[in-house]
Amino acid sequence: MDRTETVSIPQNILDSLELLGVSEKEIKLFTNADLDLFGVPETVWVVTSSSLFIVLPERNAIGPTIIELNEIESVIIRSTVGSAFLQAKIAGSYVNLVRFTNALRFKFERFSTQFENLKKNLPISNESINEAHPFLCKECGLPLQTEKAACPRCSNQGAIFFRVFSLLTPHLIWVFLMIILMGITVALSLVPPWLTKILVDEVLTTQRHVEWLIWVVAALVGTELLKSFLNMTVGILSSSVGTLLTHDVRTRLFRKLQELSLDYYDRNSIGTLMTRLSSDVEALQGFVTQAAQGFLLNILLIIGIGIMLLSINFRLAIYVMIPIPFVILGTLFFWRNIYPQYFKLWDSQTKMANFLNGVLSGIRLVKAFSQENREIGRFAGMAAYFRDSTRRVNQSVAMFNPSMAFLFGLGGLIVWYAGGKSVLAGTFTLGQLMAFLSYIGMFYTPLSSLALLSNWLSNFTSASNRIFEVLDTEPTLVDQKNAIELTKIQGKIEFKGVTFGYDPYFPVLKNITLSIDPGEMIGIVGRSGSGKTTLISLLCRFYDPQKGLILFDDHDLRELSSGNLRTHIGLVLQEPFLFQGTIAENIAYGKPSTSHKEIIEAAKAAHAHDFIMKFPLGYDFYLGERGTGLSGGEKQRIGIARALLCDPPVLILDEATSSVDTEAEKQIQEALAILCKNRTTIAIAHRLSTLKNADRIYVLDDGEVVEFGSHHELLEAKGVYHRLVQMQSMLASLDT
């Protein structure tokens, strides 16, 4: 059953709306809440038409609330403990419209976005309001570790095993060799009890063939030696195949992660993805070991031993099978009651990995604000969650395993009684009974291993699910089959009615239209969160807009090869990322085959050469993680040198001088004044003084272009840009 909620307005509400003058055809948006304004459980309907906003309780205990649509300036969600309110801003004040539990928060966030679109005459979608939460399984509602991940409860376990086996295709020769060797090992395992029967019945009790003693014992020794050798060989082969498998899967995973679009990384934390590449992949090696020396070997043993038991005494063999139905019921009990406890264990592991990744990456900030004790407390809470989850699982398994062992022991006790009576009656020899009991011990050992395999199996299937979830994810941005690769670049850029949101229902950029001619220097300014960096991300085609076109030299970006496009764009980020490696390697990252001379020229152009030469090894100085050893301004200038080395026709500076002092900024600006000639340059800047010489400045506010023009034109217009300049001038005067 798909848990995406299908909401339809009941007939009594439609009748009430008719009385209010609103027909069903006039309804634009609707959804239902689960509380009244006092927090009492009640189904309350929220309906909007082209002109009215109506809140109508289903039981009509309270009359409807009717508001003219043009009276509502905006709507927001105000959270409280356990519930939240949808509030409307009317005449400058916020009014509670409807109340709902936190379970419906996701739905009302989407409702508020669609309502804002309705107010602005933008396209709306009522269906999107009731979409299932991306972190919940659509079938069973189980919370998922990542957005739209495979549900461990609903996924087809058989399909997972088939896919894992398919990964072994390149190593089938070794797999078949292992199976053959395991078959021989199983056959050898069946020999000792049979030799024991001969030893007891023919040598020790009757003494008919005393001369056989040395040969029977020698055969037992030889059998054990050969079996040990084969077990060693199978172990070595399974280890080798498992290592090859994990190498192949880890390589495929990393290749897939490189292919995926940036929106995938927006949804999944780095700690989670690192777990996929490390511990989850290692679970596959455990699978090969278990299959070769555990699961498959046990299956073959059970079949072989079962045949031997039936051949010795059919009636006693039936007694041996008595505990098996109870074992099956016990295994089903495990899957239904104990296996779900693993979900919390896996969740606690993932949360701890994410927490450690974040805290250890930001350890300088933790120490700068003396928050060590706070982070220790947070970690202690997560560690306690992990401890409690592990304890619950281990306690359940600790009770389950002895119960299964007791059930297995019942079969042996029954055989002792029935077989003993047969020996006393003379219908069964002592040697046959001893051989039978030996086979029983051998029979129950693999059977108990299979019953207790649930513990390993649950970990394996979960890890496999997470691996295949990544491998099955398709990048949202895919080049067309005949994608265009540009050779001669002019640098003309156009945005035509572009609307984009990281969540399509929450647009960050709204109907953006702007044009940049070849060789122009364009400034992009606006308050934090106005969409400046998002605009640049679209131009680099890290994302595609939901609406509108972006043209590069009169070509739609979606028609161009993404890799080719990005080779023509030099990007200097607000926070330049430097890899562990030498300074020269970091500068040449975008052009690895460049000469040392070109690296030095790019560094000089970015005014980085002088400070680089102060290091003991100069350009061969090794940087730590994220550029440890450099100041913020030095990192920024290396980032600029990295972009300039590629000599791109289009240069994008995202707050490129935000981390440098006044003197360094002046040096960089002088270098850029020369380098920007005959090159299309887009500069995002908070320091508006750096954009005085820009050909044109676009001002963004709340995702929209509110004004554009030259520096002087915008000052004369006395709009948003003028206010920003005044604020910066005031702050600068206070600093002096």
Question: Any overview of this molecule?
Answer:
The protein is α+β, with helices and mostly antiparallel strands and 736 residues long. The chain has three domains: 11-130, Pleckstrin-homology domain (PH domain)/Phosphotyrosine-binding domain (PTB) (PH-domain like, Roll), CATH 2.30.29.30; 157-472, ABC transporter transmembrane region fold (Up-down Bundle), CATH 1.20.1560; 479-568 and 689-736, Rossmann fold. Helices cover 53% and strands 15% of the residues. The chain is extended, with a radius of gyration of 36 Å.
Give a quick precis of the structure.
The chain is of the alpha+beta class and 736 residues long. The protein has 24 helices and 19 strands.
Strand order of the largest sheet: 13-16-17-10-18-19
The CATH superfamily of the largest domain turns out to be ABC transporter type 1, transmembrane domain
| SS-based class | alpha+beta
**Oligomerization category of the chains in this entry:** single chain
Look up the CATH topology of the largest domain: ABC transporter transmembrane region fold
H/I helix tally? 24
- The CATH architecture classification of the largest domain is Up-down Bundle
- State the helical fraction: 40-55%
* Strand proportion: 5-15%
Q: What composes the largest sheet?
A: 6 strands, mixed
Return residue spans where pLDDT drops below 50 for at least 5 consecutive residues.
Answer: none
CATH first level of the largest domain: Mainly Alpha
